Structures are given as C-alpha cells and as structure tokens.
Amino acid sequence: MSEADYKSQCDTAEQQLAQGDIDTAIKTAHQACGTTPEQGRAYRIIAAALVVKHDWLSALETYELSWLLDPNDAEAQAGVSRVLGHLRNTPDLQNADRPFPELSKFGYYSKACRRFLRIKLLGAAALAGELAEGESSDVLLQTAIMNIDATLCRWTRFEEHKQYFFDYVHSQKHLPATSPWLSLCLQDQPELHLGIAQKFLNDFGGHQAVISRKLRPLGKLKNRPRIGYLSADFHDHATSRLMVAMLEAHDREAWDIVGLSYGPDDGSTLRTRIQSAFETFIDLRGKPVDVNIQTLRALNLDILVDTKGLTSDFEPAYSLSRPAPVIVNFLAYPGSMGSTAYDYIIGDKIVTPFENQPYFTECIVQMPHTYQPNDPNRLPADKPPNRSEAGLPEGALVFAAFNQTKKITPNHFQSWIRIIKKIPEAVLWLYCEDEIAKKNLTTLAVQNDISPDRLIFAPRLPLAQHLARHQLADLFLDTFPCNAHTTASDALWMGLPIVTLRGKSFASRVASSLLEAMGLQELITKNQEEYEQLVFTLANDSQKLKKLRMHLIEQCQKTPLFDPEKYTKNIEQAFAFMIERSRKGKPAHAFEIRDFSEGGGVRLSGGTDFKPVQTYKKR
User: Fold this and answer.
1) What is the DSSP letter of 52?
2) Which residues are CB-neighbours of 192 under 8 A, at least 6 positions away?
3) For residue 123, which of 33, 233, 519, 524 is within the disulfide window of CB 3.0 to 4.6 Å?
4) Please, which residues bridge with residue 228 across strands?
5) Mean pLDDT of the chain
6) Residue 488's closest CA among 509, 505, 460, 504?
7) Is the pLDDT of residue 288 over 50?
8) Residue 253: strand, helix, or coil
9) How far apart are CA 192 and CA 288, in angstroms?
10) What is the pLDDT of residue 77?
C-alpha cells in the first residue's frame, strides 16, 4: 500500500469513528495496519475506537504500540495517559499501575502480541511478535506466534511449530500449554492429538483431568431425564447454527432440556432462537466458576453435554468437576478431550471407528448416518450475486475453499497450486479478510508461476448472503488434515460438491462423514495424489459436475444429514442408554445406535445384536 493509500484509509477510518460507526472504523484501520504495520496512526485510531467500546485494556495495548512505533506521536502518548488514568481509578481491574512501555522492557511486546491475537488484530499481533523475538520474559509468546503464523499463512516456521507439539507431549522439560485445536490443523496424528489434550487439561485442570470415572450420587428421580447443554457459543456461532434445530426437536414430554451458557449474548436472532429452544436457560456469566459449579450440581442433571470442548474461551472446570453422572463431549471439538472426566464422545462409523478407541479417553458413541446435526432452516439470500459482483471471472472454473486460513497447510496449498496450474481457466476462491494472509498466499502463488489474479478472496458476509454465493462455484476443495465442518455442510446444503481427503483423525474425516451421508463416497480420496487427480478429472467433466450438483439438490430434501427430527430421536436413544447404564451402576462403554426408523436399538462395540433401549422411568 502506498503512503497516499495508507493516509486515505486512515482518514476514512477517522471519519467512520467520528460518525459513530465504531466497528467499521476498526475494520478499516485494521486493513491499513495489515498492509503498513510499521506505522502507528492506524493503531491509534483502533485504540480510540476501543475506548469508545470501553475495552480499556485492549485500548491501552494498542495506544502503547502506536506510541512505540512513533515515539514522537503526542496523541498516542496522551491516549496511553488517559487510559492508564481510567484504569487506576477502576478498582476491579488489575494491572492498573503498569509501567509506561520502554521498548522491550517488561516483556511488553510479548503481552501485546497475545492481547492483539485475542482481539483478532492480526497485523498488530504479528508485528508485536516480531518485536518480541528478543524477549525471554514471556514463555507464552511461542504459542501466540504459532497461532498468528497459522492464521496469516506465514509458513517459514511450519515444521518448527509441528515439532513444538511433539515436544510439548514428549519433552522432559516443561513447555507452556498451546492450542489443541491448532494441533488438529497441522498434522494428522490422532495419538499426538490425544497426548496434547491430556497434557493441556492436566496443565489447566490439575488432578481433576485424570480422575477416575466415579458416578455421582444420582439424587432424586425426576418425571423426565434432565439434559444440560453447556457452551460459551450460544450466540451467532457455527456450533449453534448446527445444533439449534436439534435442540428445538427434543421431545419436551419425555425430556427436560436445560441450556447452560457462559459465553456472550450478542443479541442475535440465533441467540434468541437458541434460548427459546431450552425449557430452562441459565446465564452463568459474571459469577465465579466455583459458584457456577454449585449451580450445575444443584440442577440434578442426568447428563451434562459439553458442546464447547477444547476451543477458544473453554472453561475446563465445569465438566472436570463432574456435576452430572454422565459427561458427554459433543460437536464442537473434533477429538478427544483427554480426560476420563468425560464418559462419551458423539461420533459415527466414519469419524470415530471403534478401532480408533485407543485415541479417545471417552467411550465412542456411533450415531447412524453422521455425527453432525444440521438446521434445514438456514436459507440463502433471495437474490444471489452474479460472478461479476463477487469479483469472479465470468468464464472461469471456480474452486471454492471457504475454510478459515488456519486450516490451510503449505503442503495442501501446494496441492491447490498444482491443480490450477494444470487447468488454465481455473481460479481459487478463498475465504480470507486479513490483508497479510492475502499477501502471503498471493506471494506463494506468484513464486509458483501463478498469476495473482487467479487467487480471489471472499470477504465475510451475513450467513444468507454467504450461502447464496456458493452457487457461483463449481467445486469445493476441502482442507487437510483439518476438514471443513460447518463450512462443509453449508456447501452441501447449497448443492456444491466437495472433494475431500480422508485421514486418520476425527478432524480429517468430517467431510467424509457428511459425503457418506449424502451418498457421495466417490468424492472421498485417500491420499494427496488421489485428491489432485479427482479434482482434475471433475474439472474436465462439466456433465459430471452438473449431475453431482443435481444429486445434492435432490438429496438435501431426503437425507438424514438435514433431518433434525430424525437426528434428535436417535441421539435421545443414545442419551437413554447412557442413563440406563449409569443408573445400573455400570461403567461407560462404547456403543452404536441404529436409526429409530429401522427399529432403533443399541449395540455395544464388539457385540452382535441390537437391543432395545429402555425408557427412563420414575420408580
């Protein structure tokens, strides 16, 4: 970006801020940061916007970085003073008397790096991480840089980051905990994923993470079994979009369904819908964790369903304290929680074959068809865009890859490059908003003799508009080793075929599960060479692509993948069997469920016959 363009974007951001359009001002200034991270003005604008949002600590970090970049910036210096003055007069906030920043003293850059990452100011986080290279005072810096590098497709240290996860599990010296979710994106090693989860929960949960599976006293029997769904994502979030219709379909005469939320209320339509789906909804925010644990125990739950797992903002203490006789890992985290505090994980024959039980501390539950619930009520915009409006060439063959950039690996990106090299009319349509990530991916393409205009970046859109734009693509290219999850079901729901590569881990088998449920096993490959060859074959067979799209459009109205009523009846069978074993004092055991429309029933792993599930009865 030229100096004039940078100034123009900053001017625009300041105007947006003056007009009260705070979020747009932050976005505009952040774009300027992404292209010119060494200048401080854009950070100062973001800091001023964060003050308006009363995010004082984030504003302080941002003002400080702006000042560090330009020590003569009087406005940045004044901003630091104002925010510090506010924090010193706010008794409930810690770190109010932090020293003024003096280059790399006090581990400032390391702390700033992690805070910027947390509020998704990736350009600022990347710069702070680089400036912090000489600091040794913050042991968490390495893990922050790993997340930044993955999100920005900055792969110079990719192998080093993979080695870190191995060392985290196997090294004799203590290393700071890092993101189990990121490990799923870097390598297809379920045994390593399990080790990372076990160590991560042990680091954060202590002895609770490795407790034996002791059943709690069952308490007073109720007229209906009580199921508690626990999450920090009961708002406009991918997990909630998947499960809302399932929650609405629970049989209220047979089940007492409780929502337990410790995440934000964003005021969205989805939040309202989620909240209404529960018979009882309890907002746990603003209370100490130990108080909330007592609240959970007092509910006399039969099952606690953890729909958060090892993802961002996860609070491990709730499930590790075992506030119910049965704890279930469900939907959000595609892997083991690494703790025997959890009794079961909901999977299917594809994502969790019984031979993979050694990679799970939980007992595997195999749902019929697929592990993933879906909502057939999510509808595309009435008027889909045309290719020109979406920035796509009219006559191109469009390969969509709408996964988050963190899921792209250098090896898989090279696979995409080889594919579009063979097909001159093809373009790669990537979901990416960050300017640094765009620049990194474009640079890699150019280094491989691919014109930069063959990489087209799709911005974030409201869900209805995002769904509608799938109609402009010809084929969806899945990532590996962490597949598309909600993104994959969105594509299939919109009639867009997916080519995927099936690996060994849960995360690398998700799209295979969804394709099997849609009757499209032919789109599942077993290695990189097969993956590339299948994409190339389909790209040269327009009639086959048309047939695949028509198959999806027809099957979406018939498949169990988009039938929440059927899914809910089947998972209610699973819940009933879990409760039956618990009440008989039997330990958790891996099992599979037969579709209720085929007679229903449960079969233990290693068993031969399906047996009826006993109905919960008050005696």
Assistant:
1) H
2) 165, 166, 169, 183
3) 33
4) 258, 304
5) 89
6) 509
7) yes
8) coil
9) 33
10) 79
Could you give the CA distance from residue 96 to residue 83 in angstroms, rounded to a whole number?
9
Pairing of strands 363-367, 591-593: parallel
What's the pLDDT score for residue 1?
65
Q: Are 547 and 519 spatial neighbours (Cβ–Cβ below 8 Å)?
A: no
Q: Which long-range contacts (CB under 8 A, 24 or more apart) does 409-412 make?
A: 409/155, 409/158, 409/185, 409/186, 409/479, 409/480, 409/481, 410/155, 410/158, 411/528, 412/479, 412/480, 412/528
Tell me the CATH class for 3-138.
mainly alpha
Q: Which of the listed CATH numbers 1.10.10.10, 3.40.50.11380, 3.40.50.970, 3.40.50.1370 matches domain 211-376+565-619?
A: 3.40.50.11380
Residue found by looking up tokens 């510090």 in the block: 84
Give the bridge partners for 364, in sequence order: 345
Strongest mean pLDDT among 27-31, 65-69, 105-109, 123-127: 27-31
- Phi and psi for 455 in degrees, rounded to 5? -105, 120
pLDDT computed for residue 619 by the predictor: 44
Peptide bond preceding 481 in cis form (omega within 30 of 0): yes
Least confident span in 77-91, 99-113, 163-177: 99-113
Give the residue-averaged pLDDT of 444-469. 97
Rounded to an integer, the average pLDDT of 32-51 is 84
Query: What is the spatial distance between Cα 221 and Cα 209, in angstroms, rounded to a whole number?
Result: 28
Architecture of the domain whose range is 397-561: 3-Layer(aba) Sandwich (3.40)
Using CA atoms, how far apart are residues 349 and 513, in angstroms rounded to an integer? 8
| C-alpha distance across the termini of the chain, in Å | 73
What are the residues whose beta carbons fall under 8 Å from the beta carbon of 531, sequence distance 6 or more? Answer: 415, 480, 499, 500, 501, 525
Both structure tokens of 325:
């006789």
How far, in Å, CA of 132 to CA of 141, rounded?
8
Q: What does the alpha-carbon distance between residue 108 and residue 113 come to, in Å, rounded to a whole number?
A: 9
Residue type, 349: K
**367 sits in which H/E element:** strand 363-367
Domain ranges of the chain: 3-138, 211-376+565-619, 397-561
Residue written as token pair 């991916």: 441
* Per-residue model confidence as pLDDT tens digits over 408-433: 999 999 999 999 999 999 999 999 98
Residue 394 has pLDDT above 50, yes or no: yes
- 449/414 Cα distance (integer angstroms): 12
Q: Are strands 591-593 and 602-604 parallel, antiparallel or unpaired?
A: antiparallel
Contact present, 367 and 435 (Cβ < 8 Å): no
pTM of the complete model: 0.84
Indicate the length of the chain as a whole number.
619
What's the burial of 530, exposed, middle or buried (CB within 10 Å: 0-12/13-18/19+)? Answer: middle
Report the alpha-carbon distance of residue 66 to residue 54 in Å, rounded. Answer: 18
**Residue 358: CA atoms inside 13 Å, Cβ hemisphere, count?**
5
Sheet with 455-458, strands from edge to edge, namely 455-458, 426-431, 397-401, 475-477, 498-501, 524-525
Nearest to 110 by CA among 135, 147, 127: 135
Same fold, 211-376+565-619 and 397-561: yes
Q: How far apart are CA 281 and CA 228, in angstroms?
A: 9
